[in-house]
Every structure is written in C-alpha cells, then in structure tokens.
Automatic annotation (TrEMBL), chain A:
It comes from the Bacteria. It holds the Pfam family FAD_binding_5. Keywords: FAD, Flavoprotein, Oxidoreductase. This is Xanthine dehydrogenase family protein subunit M. It comes from Neoroseomonas terrae.
TrEMBL record, chain B:
This is Xanthine dehydrogenase family protein molybdopterin-binding subunit. It comes from Neoroseomonas terrae. PANTHER family: ALDEHYDE OXIDASE 1-RELATED, XANTHINE DEHYDROGENASE. InterPro entries: Ald_Oxase/Xan_DH_a/b, Ald_Oxase/Xan_DH_a/b_sf, Ald_Oxase/xanthine_DH-like, AldOxase/xan_DH_MoCoBD1, AldOxase/xan_DH_MoCoBD2, AldOxase/xan_DH_Mopterin-bd_sf. The keyword Oxidoreductase applies.
Length: 263, 796
C-alpha cells in the first residue's frame, strides 16, 4: 500500500472534520478498504479510523425499532439478543456474511456506506424500510442506496446508526457466488405494519425493490404467491459465474425461500 | 527401552515429525530468510497478452527513495544469458523436432501473456521497489491476442511466436492407425465424445519466492527458492541461463508450502534474483503476492479432445481413437511438452484390455501463462476422457456401467500386461478395488437413496471411475528415448553416526508429503533405529549429493528405493565389521532390525556396536575395510509404477439453483505397500479435494483479449471444506514387482481418479435430462442451464 496519514478520532465531530479532506478515507472494519489499499487501488491522503467513536457503537431497542450502531460488527448483530428476539432474519443474515474473520471485523455502517452490489445488508435495510441516521440527517432506505458503490452520503457525512422498525415477518435467502461467496442473488422479504417490501441484492448493480412480488405477497403471503413471478433479466449482472438470466431465475427461487424462512 | 517404543516401521501410522514445527508456525520458508544488506525486487509485468515493446523508459526511477536499480530485458540480453530452458523434446509425426521458441528471462522484444516480466526494480524495501516499477514507462504496441486454443487454431490467428506457423508446437501421435482403422471397420458400435479438460490454476498455499546471494570473495552464488527439486534448478539455471558451474551455485529449497507441480519448473524470478545479486553484490529477494501467483505460476490441464471407442456386440472394447489439442501457453515451461504426450496418451488403455489405440496430440501456443504438470499431469486428462467415455458407452449400448467395466478389465492373472501404447503394467487387481468400493459405497442401495432424495426435491446421482495411473517417474533410459533431457533416478545417502543415530540425505523434496516421517520409518523398519533418531535432510544442493526431486508420485518409489539400496550397503559393510568383532565368517552373519547375529548362535552385536567400531577403529580390520559407516546409492527404476483403483462419488443436485452438493465419496486405491496409512489417507484426501475442485468448482478463464478473468480468489473457486463430502479412503494392495519396497505411490491418485467419478455422478443425477457432454466444472449456472433447457424441450 501507499503511505497515508492515520487518524483515530474519539468523536463524530472530529472525524467529520478530518473527512473534510476529499482524499481522506474513513475506515470502519476495513474489509473492503484494506484489500483495496494492499492492491494499491486506492491512494488516500489519510485514513480516519472510526473505531474509537463511542456514539457509533451499541445495539438497543427504542420503542418499536432496533437501533444498530454503525460500528456494530456482523458478529455483534448475529449474537445480539435484541436483534435475535425482534428481527431474527437480520441476525441470521449477519451470521452468514462472509466468513468468521469477516464477521469479526466488518461492520454494518461500513457495509451499507460502501454499497457493494453483492453485499448482504442493503437488502435488509431496504426491505425492513430502515432509517439511516447520519452525522447530518436521517435518510430513508429508499433514498439511501443510489447505485453501484453509490449512496446518498455526502463526502464528509458518516452513518451513525441504522434504525430498523420491528417487522411482523421477515426472511432472507441468498445464493452465494461459488468463488467469492458474496451474494449472487438474494431476496429479503418483510411485512412491517401491514406493508410488504421485497428487496433484491446481488443480482443487479444496486439493491432494488421487486414491486410485483410485493403486490403478490401483500395479497397472499406465501411462497406460492411469488413462485410464478419472473424477474426481468434486463439490467441484471452477468459474469463468468452466471448470466443475467440465471440471476433472474434465482431471484424467484430465493424469494420463495425467503418467504418460507419468514414463516 | 525397546519394549516401550511402539512399532514405528512399515505400516505404522507414525505422527508426522514435521508437524511439530509446522503446526506451531515454526517452519522456515523462503520468505522467512532475510540477509544483511538485502534488497527487494519487484517485477513489472505485462498488462497485455500480446504486444511489441517499443521502449522501456526507466528514467523516472532515478533518485526515487531506496531505489538501487532497474534491470530490463535489454540489460539481461547484454550479459549473453540463456533463455529459460525446456527439459523435454517431443518429435512430430514426421520425425522433425517440436517448435521450441526462445523464452527470455525478461521479455525484451515482445510480451506474450499478461504477467510476462518486462523489468525488475530493486530497492531497499519491497514497497520502494514497487514504487519504482510503477514509475517505469513501457511503450507497448498492442497486438491481437490468441487467448484460447480455439482462437490460436483459427486460420490467420495472431502468431504467438514469429516463425511458428499456426501456433503449432508439435503434431505428435502414438499407436498404429492402420490397425485401428481395421478394428473400427469391424465395430458393432462406435461411441464418440467431445471433451474439454478445464484449465486450472494451482494455488499452492505458499506463493513462490526467491532469495539470491553472491559472495564476491569466493564467487559462490546461493539461491533459496520455493522448489520441488533444487538440484534440477541448479542444473537448469546454472548450465542453461546464468552459466554458473554447479560447484559455485548452491540451491536451497527449505520448507515449501505446497507445490502440486507448479514448483517443479525453473522460473524467471529465480534467475533474476541470482543474476541481480551477482551484479549488485547484495542479496536480492522476491516474494510473489497472490495476484502474481495467478498470472505467473504455470497452469495445468487445458485440453480439448475428441474420442471414439469401438465396441463389439458384447461391449468388448475393440479400439480407441483420440484426438487432442493441448494448450502450452505462451512459452514451453520446463516439462510441458511431455504432459499431453507421454504422461497422457500412454495412459489411454486405463484398466481395460484395448487391443489398439491411436492418439494424435497437437500442442498449441497461446497468449496465456505457460501450462505444465499439475497434480496428476496428463493422467487426470486421460482418466477423465476414458471414464466418461465408458459411462457414455454403457448408456448407449444398454450395458450396465459397472458390468461394462468388468467385461473389459485386465484380469489379475494377465500381469505383466503390455498395453498398445508403450506401458507394461506390473501388477494390479481392478476387480478387487471395484468390489471393495462398491460395497463400501453401498452402490447396490443407491436407488432407494435416490428415491428418498427425490421426495426432498433433490436429484441424486452416483458415479464411479475405475482408473489407473503411471507414476514413480521414471526409468532414465526410457524417458531419454522419449525426449527427456534428464535422467530420473534418485539418490539416497544413509549416514550412521558413531552412536547409532542416522541422518538420511535424499534428493526427493518434501513440500507437504511428510517425508521426514515416512522415510524415517523405512530406516526404523530396516535398521531398527527409532524414528526420533532418524533425521531426513533434503532440499539443499550443498548437503545432498544429487537428486531429481519430487513430482509424479516418485519420492517413495524412487527415492525410498535409493535409501533401501544404501541401507543394503550399510548392512553389508556392517556384517563385515560384525564378523570381525564376533570372530565369525561374514557369510554366517545375519541382520534383522538393528541386530547382527552369528547364525544359529546367541552371539549378537547391535548396530551401535558396529557404528562405534567403524568410527573408533581400534579393533578393526583396517586393511580390508575403510572406517566410517555411510553409504550412498543411486536408484534408477526399472519401470513406472501403476497405482489404480475405484473412486465412487455420490451427489445431490438442487434443481432450482443447479447447485451440486457432494454427499459421499469413496476411494479404494491400490498404492502398493503402505508405509504410513495415516499419511496415505491424507494424501489421497487432499488429491480428492483437488479432483472435486476440478470437477465442480475450478476453472481458469481468459477473455478474448487474453485478460485473466479468474485472476483472484474472488473469481477462481478454490475448494473449501464445505464443498467436499465425507471422504472414505481405503486401500487394497498388490505389490509393485520391481522396486525393493513394493510401493507404487499415492500423491496423485486422488486428483486422477476423482473428477470423472464426480461428473459421472452428476450426469447420473441428471439422467432424466439425457446429458451426454458435461464439461467441468459443473457449476450451478451450468447445471441450471441443462435443467432449464431440458424442461423447455420437454414442454415442446
């Protein structure tokens, strides 16, 4: 990697000041940034280590929502009694991200800020209609994810926490890429306050909502209701591991399995 | 003492001595060696598959922090160095030699694959060297690439090497085509099959590394390198590339973290650091990162074949015809030409009586990384072709696939068995390994398991492979007549120390095989010395007299046999000393496991009595026998060894996703006499893991421009533990008849026997979809495509 300045601020305010430098990079769990640095694909002037910021940590229940601090590691989410009790599908998703090493380093804030198309969490955030709480404002899930590796975050804006309304039902299923084990196609289904949301990750450049499936599940919450719905392959990803058509097919299969998992 | 030491000889599962350091992170690998004043090299590699180098401008590196120098291909060319040599020459059908274009250590006219070295930057730290490499400006004239076999064979394809027409390295054949045509004319049925043997990237756990040193006061060079055969590297690099005599060049291959063939070859980086150390008078070290491993380690396999099998009405094989295109990559790696010829086409009889075989092999240059031997080397390709063909033949002739194999097996009383493609098998019992495997896998009970799986919505399949391979490479005269430019004997020295402990020097090299244990067991068994008192020394040309190294499952069959011969010499000398000490005739001295006895008496001497006398020769027949107790033997094998057996795979397919899951794997292998059953089991399991990897997961993909799409672990699917199945490994032994141990070799059987068993199981699982051709790897997307296509057809 190239040389860079290293900072470890103790507060969000200090971190944001350091990030006023457009070539500085925030680091949370480092599961994306560190490999990029090692491959010299990124040359930041400074790396701002967020791990010392207490206000970005912790998982708590606030009324009818679970609020997860941005620095919560996947393993924290997977093992949280609050998450397991209120949104078991989210805990289960966290328990199956990457491998043990990734789950002990990677964080929810880092994952959603990076918005890798093959990441897990964006599907949960969208399907559960979570609110992203940043250093500046509150952003709805639908507004937050804007495109491949692109979010509504401004350069000096940090995710502080994510607030998930507790759903009546939620389930997630994914097909892993055989090589990377990232998501090749995943579907998160949730019913919250009577509203059904279906979010698809891995299959396209950015997480998206599957409106036809939402309508079908709204009318009839069952695996059969989505089993006949074909995902349009236009604009889906295709690569050496699977064509867009294969991914489109997987969306239907994973939707059925997500509904079955949700019960 | 002896009565509390458990048996450690041949047949005991002695725990691996080397694991004492490996499991505690105390191994000493090439990258662990650091020297005073050491510099670091970073290789600038071509980003293009095919380009003319117009210029290499290094001006910007001058004065960069820590940077000592940059060497280009032109700098190396000025020193009149040789190119990287090829160790095997194949002749064309017409008797002319293969095309053997030069392979510059650092490219200076053209680059021919992504990763081809263009310059080396040398600096105080690795990062500084990399900074300098990034500052080098290379002006490339990018040319169209011949990135795949298909592209390289097209009329008008780009020429990888000027003057090599049609990119054809050689056009070789074996067998009698006239006899074959006659056999085919009488055939009741001819079964044809097109096959692709997928290209693999070896991915040893330890990336390659090299550390060159030069001592200007003596003129001695030392190279530490990640090699399976340090003496071969000394010979190739010293004689062919750098022109350094053996006496001035020491090559050390210390602990090495896996090779699988990829560390046999002499690589450019070894010559670069050794030559640079001489130029600069300072040690120079290079360590690959994983990305470099993907684009510079020799790849494996990559065949496209067409096979035709002629059968009579009873399913008896009348003849086999094979046509194969083999990808050589951009340059000829050290042993590349022999892999698709003498390690492949000679294996096409497999375990079956095949009266006539005719095989043609065309080797082709492409703008890709060189391809050479990878675990199994040629034999997995032959086995996959033959064992897939047998399943298709069974299906199309309506004969049960196990029965078809039985009908054609070479019978136990037919050994030695001469095949029509040069090899003479010495021993085997293919019925026995098949029967044992069928029972262990409960083949008979499969249909009920398939029915149960169907209730769960899964497609279950079972498949077998009754394979054979040739290893213990190899008789020198034979390989010499076939084009090898080296002998393939092995060397062993047995040094009995004065107090009776033993040091063994071997030319074999251990990079995961457990030699330090298995070889010590040979000494324990024969000389009666406890394993703890036997040290195995390997991997250092300054310590070991000579050696050809480890590949082709040869270490025990050839290297172990050399040790046995050296121990025979030790015992013969010991008998003469014992005869003197016990005042008996040499002819009356018997030896068994450490004890010399006067036959028919209770007069004995222990080995230690003899060794003390040999090194402290006070009462000693000094006029007749030299002091000391150390013997060296060179062993040149009389034949290859022929392990074989039966592998059975059982799989389940999720028809919704196409994902194939291994549910069971049974191997019954005949590897000859087993020295350490635990180590054999581990070797076979590891080979099967790689075989399952080839069958279901791994494939190297280049795009049309020659860019490596599967260039990292993100896209190249290495097998993980949860991709594998419970693997049951058993052995059924017939002894090798021509080496003193009766051993055959176990290093490659797993990777050779397993891929067709897995694919046959997948095809069986898909039996309702009438699959005929299924190229590896059977990825979820590929299987889904078959299932989806099948459904579409069914709906029409």
């Amino acid at each position: 990697m190239y040389d860079f300045q290293y900072h470890k601020p103790a507060s969000v305010a200090d971190a944001v000041k350091l990030l006023a430098d457009p070539d500085a990079k925030a680091i949370s769990g480092g599961q994306t940034l560190i490999p990029a640095l090692k491959h010299r694909l990124n040359r930041p002037t400074a790396v701002v280590d967020l791990s010392g910021i207490a206000e970005m940590k912790g998982i708590r229940r606030e009324g009818n929502a679970i609020v997860i601090g941005a620095l919560s590691r996947h393993d924290d989410v997977a093992g949280s009694a609050e998450v397991k009790a209120a949104i078991p599908a989210l805990a289960d998703m966290a328990a199956h991200i990457g491998d043990t090493q990734v789950r002990n380093r990677g964080t929810m804030g880092g994952s959603i800020s990076n918005n890798d198309p093959a990441a897990d969490y964006p599907a949960a955030v969208v399907a559960l209609n979570a609110t992203v709480i940043t250093s500046k404002r509150r952003i709805t899930a639908d507004e937050f994810f804007q495109g491949m590796f692109t979010t509504a975050l401004e350069p000096d804006e940090l995710v502080i926490a994510i607030s998930f309304p507790v759903p009546e039902k939620a389930g997630y299923a994914k097909m892993r890429n055989p090589a990377s084990r990232y998501v090749m196609a995943g579907v998160f289904v949730a019913k919250t306050g009577g509203e059904v949301r279906v979010a698809v990750n891995g299959a396209a450049p950015c997480v998206f909502r599957q409106g036809e499936m939402e309508a079908a599940l709204g009318a009839n919450w069952s695996a059969e209701a989505v089993g006949g719905i074909k995902q349009d392959a236009t604009d889906l990803n295709g690569d050496i591991h699977g064509s867009a058509e294969y991914r489109a097919h997987l969306v239907t299969v994973m939707a059925k399995r997500a509904v079955a998992a949700a019960g | 003492m002896n009565d509390v030491v458990p048996f450690e000889g041949i047949g005991a599962s002695v725990r691996r001595k080397e694991d004492f350091r490996f499991l505690r992170g105390r191994g000493a690998y090439t990258a662990d060696f650091n020297r005073q004043g050491q510099l670091h090299a970073w290789i600038l590699r071509s980003p293009h598959a095919h380009a003319r180098i117009r210029s290499v401008d290094v001006a910007a590196t001058t004065g960069m922090p820590g940077v000592v120098t940059v060497f280009t291909g032109a700098d190396m060319a000025k020193d009149n160095l040789g190119g990287l040599p090829c160790g095997w020459q194949i002749h064309n059908k017409d008797g002319s030699p293969m095309a053997e274009p030069p392979h510059a250590v650092i490219a200076h006219d053209k680059v021919r694959h992504v990763g081809d070295p263009v310059a080396v930057a040398i600096a105080a730290t690795r990062d500084q060297a990399r900074d300098a490499a990034e500052a080098i400006v290379v002006d490339y004239d990018v040319l169209p690439a011949a990135a795949t076999l298909e592209a390289a064979l097209k009329p008008g394809a780009p020429e990888v090497h000027g003057g090599v027409a049609g990119n054809l390295c050689y056009d070789w054949h074996i067998g009698d085509k006239t006899v074959l045509d006659a056999a085919f004319a009488k055939a009741h049925k001819i079964v044809s099959l097109d096959l692709v043997n997928n290209r693999l990237i070896p991915n040893a756990m330890e990336p390659r590394a090299a550390l060159g040193e030069y001592d200007p006061t003596t003129g001695d060079y030392t190279l530490h390198t990640t090699s399976q055969n340090p003496h071969v590297i000394r010979l190739l690099m010293g004689a062919n590339v750098l022109h350094i005599p053996e006496s001035k060049l020491r090559v050390v291959a210390p602990d090495v973290g896996g090779g699988f063939g990829s560390k046999i070859y002499h690589y450019a980086e070894e010559a670069i650091v050794t030559w640079s150390a001489g130029k600069l008078g300072r040690p120079v070290k290079w360590t690959a990162d994983r990305t470099e491993s993907f684009m510079s380690d020799a790849h494996g396999r990559d065949h496209v074949s067409k096979a035709d099998l002629a059968l009579d009405a009873n399913g008896t094989i009348l003849g086999l015809k094979v046509h194969t295109y083999a990808n050589m990559g951009a340059y000829l790696s050290t042993f590349a030409p022999c892999v698709p010829t003498y390690l492949y086409a000679t294996l096409l009889a497999g375990t079956y009586i095949t009266p006539v075989i005719y095989a043609e092999v065309k080797a082709v240059f492409t703008n890709t990384v060189p391809v050479d031997a990878y675990r199994g080397a040629g034999r997995p390709e032959a086995t996959f072709l033959l064992e897939r063909l047998m399943d298709v033949a069974a299906l199309e002739s309506g004969i049960d696939r196990v029965e078809l194999r039985r009908r054609n097996f070479i019978q136990p009383d037919q050994f030695p068995y001469q095949t029509p493609v040069a090899l003479q098998y010495d021993s085997g019992n293919y019925q026995a390994t098949l029967d044992q495997a069928l029972a262990a896998a409960d083949w008979a009970g499969f249909e009920s398991r398939r029915a149960e799986a169907a209730k769960r919505g899964k497609l279950r399949g079972i498949g077998c492979s009754t394979y054979l391979e040739a290893c213990g490479i190899a008789p020198s005269a034979v390989v010499g007549s076939l084009g090898a430019r080296a002998g393939l004997y092995e060397v062993g020295t047995i040094r009995v120390h004065p107090t009776g402990s033993v040091t063994v020097l071997t030319g074999a090299h251990s990079h995961g095989q457990g030699h330090e244990t298995t070889f010590a067991q040979l000494v324990a068994d024969k000389l009666g010395v406890p394993v703890a008192q036997v040290d195995i020394v390997h991997g250092d040309t300054a310590k070991v007299p000579f050696g050809m190294g480890t590949y082709g499952s040869r270490s025990l069959a050839v290297g172990g046999s050399a040790m046995m011969k050296a121990m025979d010499k030790v015992i013969a000398k010991g008998k003469r000393i014992a005869a003197h000490l016990m005042e008996a005739s040499v002819d009356d001295i018997e030896f068994e496991r450490g004890t010399f006895r006067v036959a028919g008496t209770d007069k004995t001497k222990a080995l230690v009595d003899i060794s003390v006398a040999a090194y402290v020769p006070h009462n000693y027949p000094i006029d007749e026998i030299e002091p000391g107790l150390e013997e060296t033997a060179f062993y040149d094998p009389k034949n290859f060894t022929y392990p074989g057996g039966c592998h059975i795979a059982e799989v389940e397919i999720d028809p919704e996703t196409g994902k194939v899951s291994m549910v069971n794997f049974t191997a019954v292998d005949d590897v000859g006499r087993v020295i350490n059953p635990m180590i054999v089991e581990g070797q076979v399991q590891g080979g099967i893991a790689q075989g399952i990897g080839q069958a279901l997961l791994e494939t190297c993909v280049y795009d049309a421009d020659g860019q490596l799409l599967s260039g990292s672990m993100m896209d190249y699917t290495m097998p993980r533990a949860d991709d594998l199945a419970p693997v049951s490994v058993a052995t059924h032994t017939t002894l090798c008849t021509h080496n003193p141990l009766g051993v055959k070799g176990c290093g490659e059987v797993g990777a050779i026997g397993s891929p067709p068993a897995v694919i046959n199981a997948v095809v069986d699982a898909l039996r309702d979809f009438k699959v005929r051709t299924l190229d590896m790897p059977a990825t979820p997307a590929k299987i889904w495509g078959i299932i989806n296509g099948g459904r579409a057809m069914a709906a029409e």
